[in-house]
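User: Run a structure prediction on this.
Assistant: Running it now.
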Amino acid sequence: MPSSTGYMVVAIAAAVALFFGIWWMLVSGGDEAPWIPAGLAASVVLLVALSAREVIMRRAWTRYLLEQGIQNHSHRSAAEGSSSSRKSHSSSLLSAALRTIQKQSSEADSANSSPEAHLEVFHLCQDYLANTNEALHMDNLPAEKRIAIRSGQQRVRALEKHHLLTWARDSSRSLTHEAQQRARTSDKIETANRALHCLDFALKVYPEEPELNASKLAIREFIASVKVAHWVELAERSAFKGHYRRAIERYKDALFYLNRETVKDEVRTAGAEGINREISLLEGRLKAANKERQRTRSNEE
């Protein structure tokens, strides 16, 4: 198990160092109350460190229970002939691990939990299922024990799916909302791609899940709209400045992304019609400008 004392010493030392570092910078800058922001920053560091330790310790303890359950079961079966003591010991450890998962599942489902809490429970469920599968491969496992393990696996599989889907849904929604608030096009696309990575991770486990596929399609359409809107905006700027040829090229870039990216057919058709209409207008202006230029040259000659 991790050393709690060493971890807390390092966390406190980091918080103290941060406190004095910020306090010194604010004092040098002439701040009247430098200890307030320095104390807040140090407190945040300690809170984050304590929260991280709590998550790590819970997961380590659950894994410890699972691993001990399998190891003790195999060691006792090789060294002793008492099947009743093996069964009771392994059952208690597996039951304790299952109770831990159910407890963390309830905490993850609470209103104030973060998406990462659901991902943590998903990983615990995977550990539980992997270890219980090892137990089921033992030849001398009693029939009633196999039934109990399979019953626990059914409950854990349901929790595994629930928490993975919840994590993917909440994380992708949060990242998509963050992408919509970004100012730069590259930041919008990068953040939306992070949302896609969350959905792709869940789709590797549940590839046929309709909610995941629908969310992925919606995010890809958002990315397409961002790219198209970017090139349309550049085209409009060029047209406003009278650079019609450049504006036409940028409208064509917008058409390229509209046809290449994943969007609904009706959206693609409507968008292409609007862009082609603007291209036609600009081509007319470009021809008129060229004629006017030629007329001016003729008059000068």
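Residues 235 and 247 are 4 Å apart (CA to CA).
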